[in-house]
Amino acid sequence: MTIRTVIYAALLAAVTAVLAQIAIPLPGGVPFTLQVFAVFLGIFLLGKKSFWGMVTYLLLGAVGLPVFAQARGGIGVILGPTGGYLLGFALSGLIAGYIVEFTNFNLRGKILAVVVSLLIIYSLGTIQLAYVLKLPLSKAIAVGVTPFIPWDILKGAIALLLATHLQKALSTAGVKLNG
Amino acid sequence: MINVNTIGQYIPGNSLIHRLDPRTKFFTLLVAVFLVFFLDNLVHLGFLLFGVILVTFLAGIKPKMFWQALKPVVFILVLALILQLFFTPGEKLITIGPFKITREGLINSGIVFLRLVVMLLSAYLLTATTSPTELTHGLESLLKPFGRFGLPYGEIALMLTIALRFIPTLTEEAERLIKAQESRGADFYTRGLSKKAQMMLPLIIPLFINAFKRADELAVAMEARGYRIGAPRGKLKPLKFTAKDYLFLFLNLLIAMLFVILKLWGGFPAKF
Amino acid sequence: MKIAVEIENLMFFYPDGNKALDGVSFVVPERSKTVILGPNGAGKSTLLLHLNGLYTPNRGKVRIFGKLINAENIREIRKKVGLVFQDPDDQLFASTIFDDVAFGPQNLELDKKEILRRVEEALKAVDMWDLRDRPPHHLSLGQKKRAAIAGVLAMEPDIVVLDEPMAYLDPRGQEEITAILNRLNNEGKTVIVSTHDLDWALEWADYVVILNAGRVMAEGDKSILTNRRLLEQNGLKAPLLVTLFEDFEGKLGIPTSLKEAKQKLKKIML
């Protein structure tokens, strides 16, 4: 681990906390926060290192800071019904981050990373939801996956588009990241 | 509009609970969480809830703060209760129109409710009585033994500190960006989905740039003050256990054992 | 004249290949108030980052108190040379000012008493002791700059280098920082400042280095600043006093401070 990893991770956590508070109301009342953009873009920019960013994010929430969506915080959120999704952020940071690095930060790698991330996040999220609320798996999927996944796939697509812009903008600003 | 209050849920105070070492409180939370999942009986969980409420009073926290603790999950909680109540198969008790409430459903929703409440209250207690700095120190100290296995506990504590430091700054930056967008006619509450997507670009990208530009300079500045990864650093405010910590830890273990015995013995079965 | 810093033929290329410093050579006398002047893009900031080994020259040598900077002595060098960056937000990272200033001494593995002593002394030297429990983002720019200086002072350096410390400060803020720099110099520290504020430089400095396009164009005592042509050739605007007294150079000579200028004027009035 280098100084840069420490600082990048910290800043990714901070950015995630801020983006999680920005929600765009959708028709149907489902909140559309920008939280997951931080996860995807973190993976695209930092690769495996985004894992530490997500761990920091989770720890910040665990110690009570209102960094999760809708200014929620506390270890209760991580251990509660929606905690699985959050844990999925960290795991996908690691695995999808590895994929992105392995494919040298090319587009196909990033697409695969998005797919794998979503799989991880929704699997962990659903399992924990089912367990905590004592729901059968089918109900958990109906409640926790179906309403949200189309939007998250959309967000993944947007993140892919943003990635190239972001890369360019960062090199113009003189910032040298992983890829 | 955005408010990430970095004081979080901390309520400054001087109660017995406030003055406990943060590690003691972490441990207490651990015990509470273990019991929450270990106990499967309405009455047992009720006892646990009583214990937690008792500690809340000891901490000088007013009951109305309970709402603060539970606010985050109200929606999920109600949803879960409804699902449990009306859709659990079992022995029919009450029928309301096409919906039937079963005995199992009633018990299950009770358990889910109590579990969530106890867990949230316990977690809330931790963060209400411990400042973010104390929490970071406590966490670092707890992670230290894992340093032997390669866990970078010092670096993790530093990540938390830096993130804490920059959240307010980045929040201001984000608000500035949103206002700039709004003054150019964008409206975050418009209906058009593609319009919303367009608005995200000038918000997310500048925010990332702002954040990561700082990162480079900060790294250099920290190096300039002698920071090296993994090198030992002088301890400034080491945490120390006092008598009340040992007492609390002992009580924790005692109560946990009592509950385990209670469950294994099968006392107070919830029958109705 | 004892030398604090000696730069010999320093060459440095940016990662993209552009030459930032093209054979820079100069000295900084011990206990001096040295100013490094130059237009934007001259390479001032890049040069400063060499003074404590954050950048390594592609060619050339950097000597601090006669010692060549290398990988072995870099920790010692960083204890001797403290660097304050232009933007305090890039330097302050802890939850409170106190914690931030303690960061440096903690890296030196000092014991608790020593760390506390240094933090208190450093914060009092910049008049920020009362604000020690404040988080950085609750402070004004001037206060943040002072906190950043304190963070460096806690390392107890002999040489303090500041990159454009006056930037964006209001007059009172500038006065405060100037007073701090003078205090440090009185304590025997060598103070090196990069700036393009020539009026301030004229008042404050006793040694001047002019940098332009990656090269040293002039070096010496502050009479250099009375040479308007030289300054303008290097993209700098002469101090007001110098321009004012230029036409009267024969009779009055050019003052190198406001005080001197007033004295000269008093003489003619009498």
From TrEMBL, chain A:
<dbReference type="InterPro" id="IPR003784">
    <property type="entry name" value="BioY"/>
</dbReference>
<dbReference type="Pfam" id="PF02632">
    <property type="entry name" value="BioY"/>
</dbReference>
<protein>
    <recommendedName>
        <fullName>Biotin transporter</fullName>
    </recommendedName>
</protein>
<feature type="transmembrane region" description="Helical">
    <location>
        <begin position="139"/>
        <end position="163"/>
    </location>
</feature>
<keyword id="KW-0813">Transport</keyword>
<feature type="transmembrane region" description="Helical">
    <location>
        <begin position="111"/>
        <end position="133"/>
    </location>
</feature>
<dbReference type="GO" id="GO:0015225">
    <property type="term" value="F:biotin transmembrane transporter activity"/>
</dbReference>
<keyword id="KW-0812">Transmembrane</keyword>
<feature type="transmembrane region" description="Helical">
    <location>
        <begin position="75"/>
        <end position="99"/>
    </location>
</feature>
<keyword id="KW-1133">Transmembrane helix</keyword>
<dbReference type="GO" id="GO:0005886">
    <property type="term" value="C:plasma membrane"/>
</dbReference>
<comment type="similarity">
    <text>Belongs to the BioY family.</text>
</comment>
<keyword id="KW-1003">Cell membrane</keyword>
<keyword id="KW-0472">Membrane</keyword>
From TrEMBL, chain B:
<feature type="transmembrane region" description="Helical">
    <location>
        <begin position="65"/>
        <end position="86"/>
    </location>
</feature>
<keyword id="KW-0472">Membrane</keyword>
<dbReference type="InterPro" id="IPR003339">
    <property type="entry name" value="ABC/ECF_trnsptr_transmembrane"/>
</dbReference>
<feature type="transmembrane region" description="Helical">
    <location>
        <begin position="106"/>
        <end position="126"/>
    </location>
</feature>
<dbReference type="Pfam" id="PF02361">
    <property type="entry name" value="CbiQ"/>
</dbReference>
<feature type="transmembrane region" description="Helical">
    <location>
        <begin position="146"/>
        <end position="167"/>
    </location>
</feature>
<feature type="transmembrane region" description="Helical">
    <location>
        <begin position="246"/>
        <end position="266"/>
    </location>
</feature>
<dbReference type="GO" id="GO:0005886">
    <property type="term" value="C:plasma membrane"/>
</dbReference>
<feature type="transmembrane region" description="Helical">
    <location>
        <begin position="26"/>
        <end position="59"/>
    </location>
</feature>
<protein>
    <submittedName>
        <fullName>Cobalt ABC transporter permease</fullName>
    </submittedName>
</protein>
<keyword id="KW-0812">Transmembrane</keyword>
<keyword id="KW-1133">Transmembrane helix</keyword>
TrEMBL record, chain C:
<feature type="domain" description="ABC transporter">
    <location>
        <begin position="5"/>
        <end position="238"/>
    </location>
</feature>
<keyword id="KW-0813">Transport</keyword>
<keyword id="KW-0472">Membrane</keyword>
<dbReference type="InterPro" id="IPR005876">
    <property type="entry name" value="Co_trans_ATP-bd"/>
</dbReference>
<dbReference type="GO" id="GO:0043190">
    <property type="term" value="C:ATP-binding cassette (ABC) transporter complex"/>
</dbReference>
<comment type="function">
    <text>Probably part of an ABC transporter complex. Responsible for energy coupling to the transport system.</text>
</comment>
<keyword id="KW-1003">Cell membrane</keyword>
<protein>
    <recommendedName>
        <fullName>ABC transporter ATP-binding protein</fullName>
    </recommendedName>
</protein>
<dbReference type="Pfam" id="PF00005">
    <property type="entry name" value="ABC_tran"/>
</dbReference>
<dbReference type="InterPro" id="IPR015856">
    <property type="entry name" value="ABC_transpr_CbiO/EcfA_su"/>
</dbReference>
<dbReference type="GO" id="GO:0042626">
    <property type="term" value="F:ATPase-coupled transmembrane transporter activity"/>
</dbReference>
<dbReference type="GO" id="GO:0016887">
    <property type="term" value="F:ATP hydrolysis activity"/>
</dbReference>
<keyword id="KW-0547">Nucleotide-binding</keyword>
<dbReference type="InterPro" id="IPR003593">
    <property type="entry name" value="AAA+_ATPase"/>
</dbReference>
<comment type="similarity">
    <text>Belongs to the ABC transporter superfamily.</text>
</comment>
